[in-house]
Here is the input.
Amino acid sequence: MNKIFWVAWREFATTVFTKGFLIGVIMTPLMLLVVIGAMAWLKDFKGPRIHGTVAVIDQSGMVTAGLTKRFSPEELQKETEASAKQAVEQMQKTPVGEAMQGVPGANMEQAAGMAASQIAAGGPQLDLEVLDSAADIEKEKEPVKIAEIKAEGEADPKSANPRLALVVIPADAVSVKPDGKFGGIQAYFAQRLDGEIEDKIERRVQEAIIDARIENDKRLAAAGMNPTVVRDIVARPAVESKTLTKSGEKKSLGGLTMLVPMGFMMLMMISVMTSGSSLLTTTVEEKSSRVMEVLLSAVSPMQLMTGKIIGQMGVGLLILAVYSGLGVGSVVFLLKRMDLISTESLIYLVIFFFIAYFLVASLMAAIGSAVNDMREAQTLMTPVMLLIMLPWMIWFVIQRAPNSPLAVTLSFVPGMNPFIMVIRLCGSEPVPTWQIPVAIAVGVVSVVIAAWAAAKVFRIGALMYGKPPDFKTLLRWIRMA
Amino acid sequence: MQNAIELKGVHKTFGSKVAVRDLDLVIPTGSLCGFIGPNGAGKTTTIRMIMSIIFPDRGDLTVLGKKSAVESKDRIGYLPEERGVYRKMKVGPFLVYLGRLKGMDAAGLDTKVKDWLARVGLGDCFKKKCEELSKGMQQKVQFISAVLHDPELIILDEPFSGLDPVNRRMLRDLIDEQHKAGRTLIFSTHAMFEAEQLCERIFMIHRGEKVLDGPLDDIWSKYDPRCVFVETIAATDDAMVSIAGSLPGVREAIQDPRGIDVRMRPDADPGPVMAALAQRLPVRRVELKRPNLEDIFIELVGGSAAAIRAELSDLNGTADTTAAMQDTSA
Here is the structure.
């Protein structure tokens, strides 16, 4: 037992106490944070402010006033402030924002103001250009065709203020047609105009048209309706969504719930693969550096293999603990959402980690002992890697339909089943109770078989040099020993 | 006194190839035993079976009074033929780790490792990485790993391979020292002169079968001089060899770079043969040779000496090293 401990300790120490490992373990989450942060930052970063005009041909003659108001600097200010407020409110609704409210010094009002000025500064500066209602549409399209989208200050004086859009509002868009319906409008945009700016222009025009309709439609007056009331009535209601749990009402998180099963599977895969592949590396090193037989003069092959597997299990558990600690910690303390991660799913994570680890480790030890160098190991590794990577490739399918025949079938396929089960168990749809012990049993049986076969291969392979064995030879070794 | 190692009818096959065939072997406690035979004779397989690294198909094996070396691994020091070091590990911690695996106590282990390193001239290497050491230095480190835990039985598989004459000398002294301390030592080699110089017992195998086993003194007295060496005045040619080969009492004459090796029939009297040789050939020197292990081996294995010579070709290849060895021991 003592010897197994020393083998395990050396295996653990030589893997963990290296610059590479420490950097890898610390850098990976750090890099993830940086990437996520960069993505969030880049999303808000709109580039230079766009400057240009929006031409309108108002054939109805009733929308221009509303449009002018909507494109006026005061209205624009109001609009950006409203959208900033909305953004802040949205943020407050998220668990992060909720957590932030408890943080002293985080002044939400101030944040809203800052967001508003930021949005206003970044938003496009659009000037309205009202054209004659009888203007030639084809002719007026020309400036849009040649418009070059330039940032403020960047444009040369000649082509300053390019016409970014032309909007044609036919009369029937405002005045009801004899059949009781309204007509549509046409909008022409310059090339390479940002989709969001197009939306903004369209939205302002649509709102101005609705206002014009409410103001001018005779049916409202005939029915004795107040335009203001009508405007309030047609406004879309705000939605406050919540999730009901046993412990009370929670705000809905949308995508986040979906990420938990994937996160757990990733966590397991990273820890199993890291420790599994370093087990392979150390075993191959022991063989290729010929230190194997020196070790076998002191310990038996079984002691050596057991020690190595236990040592690398420590490595895997360390990674699992560090990452899941970070993950669970951030969910619990930052998002204050204990309900996202149940104790049960953590227990399942550990159980299936052990199953996945021992299976992979046995295979890696067997492969490592059978080959002479890493290059030869690659050939034998491919099927193992495929088996493990498959759940990663199809996690979305499993996640979307955790009780589909495919998901249930794969839950009983050795090698894949720990990962598939973790996705299913951490998801929202309950897994039929009987499947859990059966999947665990399948896993345990596969581990026992793999460890048994690995022990046999290891005993022969450890001292076998020369031609690397193929699968047929490996099977012969298993039968032989 | 109890025997350190006993093998009875030990048999091992790899696939269709018989590596060791019904081997009987007794190694008395305290002896220094050379285990010789050409490459592929089954030496390493036998040693691995003694070490319980591989297991015989049949036969009985007793090591230090136990049925398996697994039970007494900590009392055995073993230097395998396929040996190496953890390249990235430091020399000191590597030896401490192996000492730990051999069940040594932590107390004093560092000091002991340092003492040993100083003894083999690697005193400054405790904190060096193994990969910084030359092959010969690594081999010394590996030797330390085999004797560090003061084992009762030391098995060295090809301990001299890859060493320069100075280090061979040092290793021979270290082996001798362990022997004088009362430990049982076995070392295998395919270079038979090394066994001749060092051992008190010889065990020889060929194609998995034992051909010779016993104290070296007994072997010398048992295998009477049956070989006469002839140095000719002029360069030796085929005619001279065939004349020597046709003399009465001569079994075989083999051309040697320096002259002719004349092997006699078991019943022949050396005197008349030597006289006949001096009479028939232009000799400078006629000498009754003490047979070396190689000759005995060839005699025992029988068959055509030329064929066996070819099989032993790598032994002839070590002729230069033999000369070097003799230089240093002089």
